[in-house]
Structure formats: structure tokens, C-alpha cells
């Protein structure tokens, strides 16, 4: 069930802009879908969008109210419930990527049924999934893989989608996590499906397509993260990527959430990802790398990206600093448009 | 929540003994827990246990009625419901490993609450799981891994548990699938947990223990099965095995459920499993192999097991034909008792 833009972004009482990072991501990647923001008293986040009431949003043809804020524990704030209920009663769809479900807010399901609108708990997959079959499908695919969690996989794939569309290529970002789903207007939170269906979810997410169409599939976790590697492997097998982009944050002290546990080397990460990818796509290659160098000076970042590109014979970019043009060029150079 | 033996094994109207293979496994591995069987008219399976009514089972101190039969689709037969309800009303716990849940049988949950008994849907994990942390824990662990699904991992681990106990070693079978859980009296169906928690489930399943205690952990799937490899990898990381036993069925034409897809070589399977296992246990080794040679003649099987053992420098057994004594001897030889 796809989401319906345009969106009104609900920021609640976000104490800072970090708490509204989901909304920030949507605003950044889908500005054309974002008609306005709604803020409660005390909200310290500001997306630079018009502040709107629900009535104003309706007049602006908004179809979905998106909860773009996360508070501690991922729960739905008491003060939000009245607004969500009113939105539903007024005929808006509502979408959220929180742990707590919209469908668990007392009365909201019934109100949505009465109003004929949808509630989207994008962190919690609902559709029926099939077990993966590993059969190749037409169309081309890129998957972001990483040395760790939270190293820029979603950002890199969204940047590549934008760059490829600018060049007139057929490209679709495929979301595998909640923020990505709100940005894409659809997708599957693969880490929330029943374990038997990880690869099946990846296959469903990226169905067969035109031979010259590219899916840019958001990665999750890392084959080297002891908490989440099963998700990463299932996604890698189901995605059947032709090209991998290796994402990394230089200088990170340890695997996310696990002090003392070192990150893998780029070599290890390339080798294991390729070996596993080739189970379902024997021709898989690593096309390039995307580093998050926010912690480095411009000089140090430029030097590191250049040295890495030389050492591995493939482009190494920082999507924020340098853009992803070189990755797209390398992809097209290898596979054609 | 552990299951409570002794069991009465419910065979329903099983059309043949294969339909009652769950009950057959429990009877084989836990004869001391099996007081009787209950069969409906038309049942063609027979475990060689006394046929019992619920009243007779109560007199025989049975505590749990175990649904040991699977019909097409894994549903709970209409004709079974009355018996399940009566069992609950009489104070028996009820356990089943079907797709359809006992808790979805109309009225059964309420009846269980009234009677103060438990319903165990062992295919559907219920406890709260934590995300894995990858921290080493005391005690020793063996995990069965495989070239494919359904190559004898559960059987091998149960046979090793029995052999180790016979030798006076501290050993516990740890179940990761529904039949294993009914045999062990507890465990977690790791392929049915939410994907983020696969490794966390494996860690919870095999908690820290005495330094000389062995957990024998039932494996699931294969790193080389495109449908289920994510489950296998998460289990491998969470189990943190000291020793792996590689399970294989020689001569299998293709990966289970995927005609045309070849099995990996033993070399590939050893290498990738060890590489991945060493993320959470750098000292992991393959201790031996267990082949299901049911499809071979005695001569051919003996020759193959011998040749494989010589080639790899480790024991290669068929748990049914030869027993698993050599695997236990190799384990003790390497790690001490």
C-alpha cells in the first residue's frame, strides 16, 4: 500500500532538529511532496516550510500527515493523539515510523475505517511475503553495503537516484527502513520482517523491471555487525545486486553500539560481500565507495578519498562533499545506461 | 516458558507415519517423557505407545498434550478442537508447532486462563528478545551447519547430546525449530523471530554456563540457501560456536525447494562458515562432518565417509549408520571434557 503525497510534516514538540531528522530527510529528498509543517508549542525544529493547521493543509491538497519526529522510546506522544484523530476524521492518511503503532492508538483504527483513510506504520511490515526463490529478474540493481550500520547507505542511494534521474536514466530508490519508506512513499522495513522472509522481502521490494532500469536499494547493517548481519545477508541475497557501493565512515572508533569491537577493513568487507552476493548474482561487482567524511577536514577528506580511489581502482566519494557523480559515471561505464 | 513433561502425544487422524513425524521425533529422543498416544478414527500412525484417553493420561501424570501431527497447511483440524478444549478444561497444558496458533482457536485462550494452564505455540516466539551484543559468554558450544536445509542438523545435535551424556559430559541440546523445541522442552524458533533479533535469539537460547558445559545448538538452513541464509548467519553469530559440525546429504540433486540450484562444495561451506563464525568467536573450528547417507548402499556409504574423513583430516560420520561417537571423541580431544 503506497503512501500518498503531498505530505504535511508533523514535528510535534521536537526539542531540537535532531529529533525531527525523519522530517528533515523527507524535506531534503522530496521537497516537491512537502507542503507544510505542523509544530506544537515548544517545538524547536524548523524545516523552513509554511506552518499549517489541518484545515490549511486540506486547502493545500495535502493527503497524508507524516509523523516526522521521534521521541525517546519511539512512542506516540499523549499530546499528539488528539491531532492524529482529528487528521483522520478530516480524511487525511497518517504515516509514522515509530516503534509504537498508530494502530495501537485507542480508537484510531475505527476512526480510519469510518473515514476511509489509511494508517501507515512503516516500521511494521503488513503485507504477505513469500520466501525468496533466488531466481534472476530483469532490470539492474545497486545495493549499498557497509562496514557498519549508519554509515550513509540511505543517503548514498538517494543521491545516486537523484543524479541518475538528472542524467535521464531510469532509476528508483528502494527503501528498506522507515525513514527511507517515508521518503520513497513505499518500501519494506526488512529488519522488521519475520526472519524467514528477509530475502523474500528484498525480492518483493525490487521486482523485475525494464532491462535498462536501475533500482537503488537502501542497505541495512553490515555483514560484520554481530547484532544485525543476518538482515544484511538476507538483503544481499534477495537484492541480487549487479553493483555494490561500499559505504564507510573513516575514523569510527568501533562498530555501532558495541564499544571495543573494531570495524572490518575495506578489503575484508569487499571480499565477503562479493562472495555472498555472487550466490544469487554471479556477476556482482563493487562499483565504488561512499565515505562519510564529516569528521575530517576538507584537506584530509580530499586526500583520503583520492588515496582510496587509487588503491582500489574505483571511485571513492563523499556524497555530501563531492556528490555521487563519479559513482554514476562508473556504473554507466560498466553496465551501459 | 518451558514445556512440562510428561507428554501425551496427539496423532489426530494422521494418514501415515510421516504426518506424525514430530511425534515420532519426540518418541525417539525423549522416550522417558512419552506416556501415551491419542489417535482419532482413521489414524494410520502408531508410535507403539499405549493409547490413552485424557482421563487415562491424567491418571498417568501427563502434564502436556502435544500435537505431534502436521496436516496440509499446518492448520488445526476441526475435529481436534473439541479435544484441545477438553484437555485445557481438564488442566493439561497444550503444545503445538503448527503454523496456525492454538491461541487462535476460538475460546481456547479464555479456557486456558480459567484453567490456569499454558498454550505453547512453539513455532511462534513470544518472549521479549534483545538485540545481540556479541560479547563472549562462558561455557562451550557446538553448532550444526549445513550445505542445505534438512540435512540432519537436529538429529546430529540430539545424537551428540545423548552420546555426551552417556559419557558423563555436561551437554544440553538447544532447539531452534519447532520439532526440536518439543523434544527439548524449550527453545526458540529462530526463523520466526523478527529479523533484527535473530542473533539475539541465539544468544538468549544458549546463555552463559559452566566452563565445561557444552550446548549443542540445532542449526537452521545454510549460508548458501538463497531463501534462508540470513537466519543461518544470525544464528552462527549469536551461537558463538567453538566447534562446528558440517551436515550434508551426499547426492542431493539441488538446494531444497530450488530445482537447478547446486549445493556448495564442502570446501566452500567450511570456509565461509568459519570466516563468518570467527566474527564472534575467533577460535571457531570445524570439528567433523555428519552425512545423511540413507540414499547410498552400505558399501558406498562406508567408502564415502572414510574418504571424506581422510581428505579433511576430521571424522565424518552418518549419525544413523555409525553413530556420532567419533564426533564427540574429536570434540573432547580438542577442547578437553
Automatic annotation (TrEMBL), chains A, B:
<feature type="domain" description="D-glutamate N-acetyltransferase-like C-terminal">
    <location>
        <begin position="131"/>
        <end position="328"/>
    </location>
</feature>
<dbReference type="InterPro" id="IPR011669">
    <property type="entry name" value="DgcN-like"/>
</dbReference>
<dbReference type="InterPro" id="IPR035402">
    <property type="entry name" value="DgcN-like_N"/>
</dbReference>
<protein>
    <recommendedName>
        <fullName>EBNA-1 nuclear protein</fullName>
    </recommendedName>
</protein>
<dbReference type="InterPro" id="IPR035086">
    <property type="entry name" value="DgcN-like_C"/>
</dbReference>
<dbReference type="Pfam" id="PF07755">
    <property type="entry name" value="DUF1611"/>
</dbReference>
<dbReference type="InterPro" id="IPR027417">
    <property type="entry name" value="P-loop_NTPase"/>
</dbReference>
<dbReference type="Pfam" id="PF17396">
    <property type="entry name" value="DUF1611_N"/>
</dbReference>
<feature type="domain" description="D-glutamate N-acetyltransferase-like N-terminal">
    <location>
        <begin position="42"/>
        <end position="125"/>
    </location>
</feature>
Amino acid at each position: 500500500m503506497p503512501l500518498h503525497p503531498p505530505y504535511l510534516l508533523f514535528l510535534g514538540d521536537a526539542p531540537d532538529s535532531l529529533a525531527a531528522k525523519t522530517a528533515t530527510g523527507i524535506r531534503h529528498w522530496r521537497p516537491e511532496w512537502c507542503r507544510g509543517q505542523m509544530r506544537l508549542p515548544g517545538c524547536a525544529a524548523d524545516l523552513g516550510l509554511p506552518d499549517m493547521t489541518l484545515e490549511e493543509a486540506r486547502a493545500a491538497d495535502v493527503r497524508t500527515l507524516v509523523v516526522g519526529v521521534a521521541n525517546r522510546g519511539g512512542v506516540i506522544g499523549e499530546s499528539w493523539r488528539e491531532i492524529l484523530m482529528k487528521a483522520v476524521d478530516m480524511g487525511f492518511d497518517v504515516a509514522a515510523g515509530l516503534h509504537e503503532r498508530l494502530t495501537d492508538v485507542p480508537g484510531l483504527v475505527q476512526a480510519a475505517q469510518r473515514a476511509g483513510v489509511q494508517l501507515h506504520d512503516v516500521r511494521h511490515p503488513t503485507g504477505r511475503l513469500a520466501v525468496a526463490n533466488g531466481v534472476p529478474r530483469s532490470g539492474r540493481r545497486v545495493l549499498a553495503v557497509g562496514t557498519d550500520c549508519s554509515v550513509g547507505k540511505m543517503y548514498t542511494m538517494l543521491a545516486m537516484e537523484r543524479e541518475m534521474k538528472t542524467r535521464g536514466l531510469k532509476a528508483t530508490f528502494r527503501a528498506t527502513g522507515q525513514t527511507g519508506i517515508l521518503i520513497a512513499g513505499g518500501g519494506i522495513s526488512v529488519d522488521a520482517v519475520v526472519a524467514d522472509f528477509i530475502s523474500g522481502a528484498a525480492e518483493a521490494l525490487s521486482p523485475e523491471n525494464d532491462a535498462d532500469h536501475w533500482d537503488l536499494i537502501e542497505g541495512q547493517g553490515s555483514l560484520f555487525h554481530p547484532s544485525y548481519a543476518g538482515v544484511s545477508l538476507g538483503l544481499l541475497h534477495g537484492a541480487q545486486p549487479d553493483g555494490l557501493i561500499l559505504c564507510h565512515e573513516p575514523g569510527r572508533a568501533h562498530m555501532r553500539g558495541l564499544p571495543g569491537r573494531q570495524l572490518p577493513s575495506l578489503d575484508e568487507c569487499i571480499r565477503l560481500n562479493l562472495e555472498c552476493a555472487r550466490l544469487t548474482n554471479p556477476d556482482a561487482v563493487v562499483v565504488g565507495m561512499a565515505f562519510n567524511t564529516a569528521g575530517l577536514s576538507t584537506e584530509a577528506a580530499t586526500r583520503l578519498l583520492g588515496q582510496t580511489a587509487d588503491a582500489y581502482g574505483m571511485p571513492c566519494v563523499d556524497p555530501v562533499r563531492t556528490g555521487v557523480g563519479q559513482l554514476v559515471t562508473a556504473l554507466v561505464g560498466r553496465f551501459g545506461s
